[in-house]
Amino acid sequence: MEHDLKKEGKYKYYEAGEGTPIIILHGLMGGLSNFDGVADYFPKHGYKVVIPELPIYTQSILKTNVKAFARYVKDFITYKGFERVILLGNSLGGHIALYHTKMYPEKMLGLIITGSSGLYENAMGDSYPRRGDYDYIQKKAEDVFYDPKIATKEIIDEVYTMANDRIKLIKTLTIAKSAIRHNMAKDLPKMHVPTCIIWGKNDKVTPPEVAVEFDKLLPNSSLYWIDKCGHAAMMEHPDEFNEVMHDWLKKANL
Questions:
Q1: Which of 150, 192, 194, 240 is surrounded by the most beta carbons within 10 Å?
Q2: Beta-sheet strands, E only, within 66-213
Q3: pTM
């Protein structure tokens, strides 16, 4: 997927299919390839899948926050000429999707969040990351998944490189603080966009009670669990994730 990115102006993105646009927002450590399963499946079922590369490490420090990223997404939607979209976000991407929904409800057809930050303060900030300590970073990467083997050497190396890049580390910590500052608890009850919450039952990063809280606070939400699954359901159980999401889209007439 990384090779198929379109570059236009300030945007880099992957795009496939025709139909209702599903825009996918990756997490802080998440590459676009984390959504390979979704990107392969939905274009065959009448959707246009678009995955922009978020400017997590490339914007100025003043624009390195949840609100600025939500604005970036809105500008991207306008640039692409989409009237209204379905947003799907994992982890920080879920938080950005939620914040975008709060700021620009008129742009939203539906919202899908999985392992999202926005309510739970430990999502990114706990004693993280220790530079130079490969074993610690390996443990952290493995904790993201129910099955630690999904944290391949490639994934661990990527996080390790990020943790040892001073600028990226500063931006990561800036984003973690921003995520805590932009807690969504007061906003969620006012957000009526149809929302699908798909959560790993064994998520250690944003534990299951976070999903329950999202479901309680959002007025128009449905909560689905995936068993033996950690923080990135679309990676650990791609087929089940697609099935759940597709069923919900049909029920919501999206």
A1: 194
A2: 85-90, 108-114, 195-200
A3: 0.94
